[in-house]
Amino acid sequence: MGSSFIESNNLWTAEQHEAANRIAAQVVEQGLRQVRISWSDQHGVLRGKTLEVGHFLSVLRNGKDFQTATLIFDTTNNPVVPPFGANALGDPRMTGLPDGVLVPDPTTFTVLPWLDRTGWILSNLHYRSGEIVPFDTRGILQRQLGLLDATGYSYIAGVELEFYITRLEDARLSFEDSGHPPAPPRVSAVSHGFQYLTEVRGDEIGAILDVLRDNIVALGMPLATVEDEWGPGQCEVTFEPLTGLKAADTVVLLRSVIKQLCRRHGYHATFMSRPAFPNAFSSGWHLHQSLATPEEGNAFAGDEDSVLSQTGRRFMAGLLEHARACSVLTTPTINGYKRYRPDSFAPNRVTWAEENRGALVRVAGGRGDANTHLENRVGEPAANPYLYLAAQIISGRDGLNNKLEPGPSADEPYLADAPALPASLEQAIKLFGESELLRRELSDPFVDYLSMVKQHEVDRFNAAVTDWEQREYFEIY
């Protein structure tokens, strides 16, 4: 018998081979019916196939054929290039959109507790040659983590993710409402809101929060808190610290889990940053982070004289230096830029400060605190987690390599004389494409590819006639 696709291309570590052996036994012992194999696309949205168990055991060693055509879609599956053109995405291997291969990562296998005997596994997208597709965002983060590891550091992330839960009144599933994009569902509020962290407000939606909590914990995710936020039905979940890849894998599954479970129970969850609701308050994704070494532990902790170590200061300086260029990676939607408002708990310019939630980077902790770390408040909850984390590592590594300094802190972040964050996705795309660092770290083909995908989104937005225009001009002119 010949070697499997994964063995012949040497695509797994020893840990993954050991995990695959355990999974093969587990699938049989637990009598699983089916396994979902998932892949996180360019938008951080899970796509994949559901496999019968017998077929999955073969796929576990040989991978699963999968359409590379999914790479040419914007957020609503509109093709951004002619589907079958030559060298459509700047990679001649994509000509004709051939099948790729989903290579499962056995260390991500879990059983989905809300389904009957159903497993789930995450994968990377490879060409049939065995090479990873350069537009696979999980692979991009893995490469950056590898470069960081080579310098002796591991990346630690703490996730705070905000989202809205609404009551689903009408899913609008008619053929007339289908399309690119489909009509949004009609929803209503599930709680009153604007009683931040009030126990009674949170209890108004306790039934669905209990469902989410129980399933998240059953998946083995290190959930720390479930919190009532500002807006009506706005919630936040936080997690215990996770290592780099595990943090991104957790977020990409978590968002899908929350949306699936809410839908099954008559609710609609959205990670859109600023929904068009009266009295809505923007949602963000606050990313806590530090570097660690086996010898010293937290490499960002300072001493009695300085809140941050030299490593922490230089890493933070890199985050600030490249924040504007990385905006496409941290805030990838048109809607996300409507969050950057003064005095909104979201940043609007490139600043840092100790324990100040108006700054882009907040130093969380204090002098002599071994747990001191950085909180980047720039991200939107819809961001692709692999690209968000990769942006942090790329920027931070540049700060370390070039011994950058962050400059003085901003005691009043919204009034500071500091560069403004991009005001739109269109501005962010331009800054992204002009960054020599991002082109060097992500490659020209990827920067051009993602810019093309996001520009297609912008072009569709600019071509659409909005409700604002109708109200502004239809009567008066």
Brief summary:
This protein has 2 domains: 5-133, Ubiquitin-like (UB roll) (Roll); 146-450, 2-Layer Sandwich (Creatine Kinase, Chain A, domain 2). Helix content is 34%, strand content 21%. It contains 14 helices and 17 strands.
Largest sheet: 11 strands, mixed
Q: In the residues, how many domains can be counted?
A: 2
* Count of individual beta strands: 17
Please bin the fraction of helical residues: 25-40%
Q: Any idea of the CATH class of the largest domain?
A: Alpha Beta
The total of helices stands at 14
Mean pLDDT: 94
CATH topology tier name of the largest domain: Creatine Kinase, Chain A, domain 2
What is the annotated CATH architecture of the largest domain? Answer: 2-Layer Sandwich
Strand content: 15-25%
Query: pLDDT under 50 segments (min length 5)?
Result: none
Structural class: alpha+beta
Terminal residue distance = 76 Å
Q: Assign the CATH superfamily of the largest domain.
A: Glutamine synthetase/guanido kinase, catalytic domain
Q: Globular, elongated, flat, extended or rod-shaped: what is the shape?
A: globular
* Rg over CA atoms: 22 Å
Question: How would you sum up this structure, described in words?
Answer:
The chain has helices at residues 5-8, 14-29, 53-62, 137-150, 199-203, 206-218, 244-264, 310-321, 327-330, 385-401, 425-434, 436-442, 444-463, 467-473; strands at residues 34-40, 46-52, 64-67, 99-104, 110-111, 118-126, 154-170, 186-189, 223-228, 234-239, 242-243, 267-270, 285-293, 297-298, 352-354, 361-364, 373-379. The strands form two sheets. Strands 7, 8, 9, 10, 11, 12, 13, 14, 15, 16 and 17 form an eleven-stranded mixed beta sheet that branches. Strands 1, 2, 3, 4, 5 and 6 form a six-stranded mixed beta sheet that branches. It is built from 14 helices and 17 strands. It is α+β, with helices and mostly antiparallel strands. It folds into two domains: 5-133, Glutamine synthetase, N-terminal domain (Ubiquitin-like (UB roll), Roll), CATH 3.10.20.70; 146-450, 2-Layer Sandwich (Creatine Kinase, Chain A, domain 2). A hairpin with a 5-residue loop joins strand 9 (223-228) and strand 10 (234-239). The model has no long low-confidence stretch (mean pLDDT 94).
